Amino acid sequence: MKDFTSRLLLILSVAAAQVSFMACLSKSFVERDDAILFDDIVTNQNDEQADEPAYNPTTGRFIAPANGTYRVENSGPLFVHLMRNEDIVASGTNHDDKFETTSCNAVLILKKGEIIWVRLKHGIVFGGSPSHYSAFSGFMLAPTS
Ligand SMILES: *[C@@H]1O[C@H](CO)[C@@H](O)[C@H](O)[C@H]1NC(C)=O
């Protein structure tokens, strides 16, 4: 019975979590050591703060709208760091000049206001719409107090 109740609470809390985003690059991005501005929005849902999008395409930053467990991911060429505030939480690289794909992802327990972004360390991130070669996405798995 205890197991059933905890499973039910988990299902209810997952159903209540409505924070998700996916943004892609409409064209290649060549700035160095700066936030990649994923400008082509596929999903941008924030039921925690309905007036604020979860992801801001003008800054390239996702700001956690509530305490919770989140899954975030970046995929695309070439050499990238997945950033939590000013810290690297995951990296992806193929260390060459070809358009090979790399990806990095993380599961994080975030406090409201923490910032997730993708920093281009070196090279060019290949982008194009509607093909969406490169994407930055994430969602809240479950809220925490
Ligand atoms: C979020 O977490 C922080 C730090 O653990 C806590 O101080 C704050 O009260 C929490 N906020 C909510 C809305 O639960």
Task: Describe the 3D structure.
- Helices cover 10% and strands 51% of the residues.
- The protein has 145 residues and is mostly beta strands.
- The chain has a single domain (2-143), classed as Jelly Rolls (Sandwich).
- The strands form three sheets. Strands 3, 5, 6, 8, 9 and 11 form a six-stranded antiparallel β-sheet that branches.
- The protein is globular, with a radius of gyration of 16 Å.
- The relative contact order is 0.30.
- Work out the helix count: 1
What would the principal axes of the Cα set say about the shape?
globular
Derived from helix and strand composition plus strand pairing, the structural class reads mainly beta
The CATH level-2 architecture is identified as Sandwich
What value does the Rg take, in angstroms?
Answer: 16 Å
Q: Describe the largest sheet.
A: 6 strands, antiparallel
> What is the highest CATH level, the class?
Mainly Beta
* Mean pLDDT across residues: 78
Number of domains in the coordinates? 1
Protein name: Oidioi.mRNA.OKI2018_I69.chr1.g3751.t1.cds
Subcellular location: Secreted
Signal peptide: 1-17
Keywords: Secreted, Signal
